[in-house]
Amino acid sequence: MKSIKTKTIRSEVSRLLLEASFNLPQDIIEAVKNARKIETDSNAKKVLDCILQNEKIARDEKLPLCQDCGVVYINIGIGSDIYIKDSENIKHELNRAVADVYKKNYLRNSIVNDPVFDRKNTGDNTPAIISIDFTSGAGIGVEVNLKGGGSENCSYLYMLNPSASEDEIVGIVLDIVKKNITRCCPPGVIGIGIGSTASKVTELARRAAFRNLKIRSSDNRYSSLEEKILKAVNKTGIGPQGLGGSTTALACNVEFAPCHMATLPLSVFMGCHSTRRASSKISPP
């Protein structure tokens, strides 16, 4: 067994927070550029050009990609060969990393302490949503995702009849897109979770939304479903920022899991074009 200090993980999370805040992932940049090449609508082209210009300014000037600096999701995957020193303090240290980065870099604080009564801003964008799991790989995997409130408000959970067909699922997603996608700065990234339980399927959808756009489902049935939904969405003509065009979404990603025979959970978790994420691997010294 090899040890990694909690402060090492905290330092890496701080670095990834800055990377995610100021640098649009390369796969998303390429998707926007490819969409720009095939777009025929003049307004759509202008919006896509603005997205690319915004990405360059944010990267060069170290400015937030979006004024909504988002809820922070931190995913830690601990390899089988690793133990963490001071592990009892890890969540505290990760939240300290978030607080320090948001304060020092003037990133907007968006978290309120109570959902109903006080709604007082915590002042440092904490607490983060922290997930810690164990993996079969070596070292520690660290992933940071940032999610704005506009796209978060376009998240939905359905408990479908187990007999629901593929076409019914496509129809539900398409209806959600038509009613909501203009609220999350399209072109969007559509994350879909299918299966597991009501509490878990939203996590599947979140994982799907933050998955690299170049990675398709390893199951041919679900990769075909991804393509089918994306084509249907882009045929709506809603387009970038809802101004028309053939690029309403950049990708549709599906994650699935086994479920109870009496259920068919479905969750949709849409991301905006500025789907911010960064990840790395920490190897022991």
Strand content: 15-25%
User: What integer is the average pLDDT?
Assistant: 96
**Number of strand segments:** 10
Number of discrete helical segments: 8
Query: What is the C-alpha radius of gyration, as a whole number of Å?
Result: 19 Å
Q: What form results from the Cα inertia axes?
A: globular
Gap from first CA to last CA: 12 Å
Uncertain stretches of 5 or more adjacent residues: none
Tally of structural domains: 2
Strand order of the largest sheet: 4-2-5-10
Percent helix among the residues?
Answer: 25-40%
How many strands, what sense, and barrel or not for the largest sheet?
4 strands, mixed
What is the N-to-C order of secondary-structure elements (H for helix, E for strand)? EHHHEEHEEHEHEHHEEE
Assign the structural class, choosing from mainly alpha, mainly beta, alpha/beta, alpha+beta, or little secondary structure.
alpha/beta
Summarize the structure.
With 285 residues, the protein is α/β, with parallel strands linked by helices. The chain folds into 2 domains: 2-23 and 65-147, Dihydrodipicolinate Reductase, domain 2 (2-Layer Sandwich); 149-274, no CATH class.
Write a structural description.
There is one protein chain. The chain is α/β, with parallel strands linked by helices and 285 residues long. It has 2 domains: 2-23 and 65-147, Dihydrodipicolinate Reductase, domain 2 (2-Layer Sandwich), CATH 3.30.360; 149-274, no CATH class. The protein is 39% helix and 25% strand. It has helices at 6-22, 26-38, 42-61, 90-104, 149-152, 166-180, 198-209, 220-234; strands at 2-5, 71-78, 82-85, 129-134, 140-147, 155-160, 188-196, 249-259, 264-271, 276-282. The protein has a 4-stranded mixed sheet.
